[in-house]
Design a protein that fits this description.
The chain is an alpha+beta fold. It folds into 2 domains: 83 residues, Phosphorylase Kinase, domain 1, CATH 3.30.200.20; 181 residues, Aminoglycoside phosphotransferase (APH), C-terminal lobe (Aminoglycoside 3'-phosphotransferase, Chain: A, domain 2), CATH 3.90.1200.10. It contains 10 helices and 10 strands. It comes from Thalassorhabdus alkalitolerans.
């Protein structure tokens, strides 16, 4: 704890000169501990260290709160300041909203975001690379669990059949806590640190399986701009299984018994509900 407090105080000391007199800083929470809230009376800013390199594009398209400035510290760290949004996170049941579907469609359709990713050299996330990574985790981690081989065998057998028809920028963490609705009803999707280029079915599958009953998928996807067909459904199912396997591997590595059991049940359910890839 003492080391953490020292780290925070040092970071605040480095950031304060960027703001000028009158500003106070406090940690904004989160897993990385690299985000801060700056206060000066009624004024507030959201500061982050080494945030996504395409934050400017996200800001310009209205996907994240407005980027106000970017500054580099002497140690090479880049600090970004964004407009503070007075609003709230979406609740789980609000993920059915039409504007959620439309904003995700806007993100997936953005040629500017895709061009930015290509310029910074991001390698696309493909079914083949996902399977290879999962196999390496199992092999090098020395992990053993009945569901591991069954799940990775399924993913491997289907990887050619779920080849993406297109590659787009995917957020990869569409949890309802990352969706912010402002007091003026403007919707934002924040926390882009894990974004990558992949099949849009990755985001779509994680969202639909988590938040909507299957009976509502077709209507929601119509708002997004696509028709639910067998091919899309099988691709979404594949990515949800890969996500569940990744979660199980993580908790096996951490030795977290309750989470291991939870993701084991989830994987079993997903594999049991497996549908054969439709014949053409």
């Amino acid at each position: 704890m003492k080391n953490t407090d020292y780290y925070m105080k040092t970071r605040v000391k480095l950031l304060k000169p960027l703001l000028g007199e009158g500003w106070d800083l406090e940690p904004a929470g989160g897993a990385t501990g690299e985000a801060y809230i700056a206060h000066d009376g009624e004024r507030k800013l959201f500061l982050k260290r080494n945030s996504s390199p395409f934050l400017a594009v996200l800001s310009a398209e209205g996907i994240v709160p407005k980027l106000l400035w970017t500054k580099r510290l002497e140690n090479g760290d880049v600090i970004t300041a964004q407009q503070w949004v007075y609003g709230r996170e979406l609740s789980a049941h609000e993920m059915t909203r039409v504007d959620v579907a439309k904003l995700l469609s806007k993100i997936h359709s953005s040629s500017e975001l895709l061009d930015m990713f290509k310029r910074i050299g991001n390698e696309p996330l493909t079914p083949a690379s996902i399977v290879e990574d999962l196999q390496n985790q199992i092999l090098h981690g020395g992990l053993s669990h009945p569901m591991l081989q069954e799940a990775v065998t399924y993913l491997s057998s289907m990887r050619e059949k779920v080849a993406p028809p297109e590659m787009v920028v995917c957020h990869c963490d569409i949890n309802h806590n990352n969706w912010i609705i402002s007091e003026k009803e403007h919707l934002y999707l924040i926390d882009w640190d894990g974004a990558t280029v992949a099949d849009p079915a990755l985001d779509l599958g994680l969202l639909l399986y988590e938040y909507l009953p299957k009976s509502q998928w077709g209507v929601w996807l119509k708002s997004y701009g696509v028709i639910l067909d067998d091919q899309l459904e099988v691709r979404m199912h594949w990515y949800v299984i890969s996500h569940a396997l990744s979660a199980l591997l993580f908790h096996l590595q951490q030795g977290e018994t309750e989470e291991i059991e939870r993701w084991n049940k989830e994987l079993r359910k997903l594999l049991t509900s497996n549908r054969l890839f439709p014949e053409k």
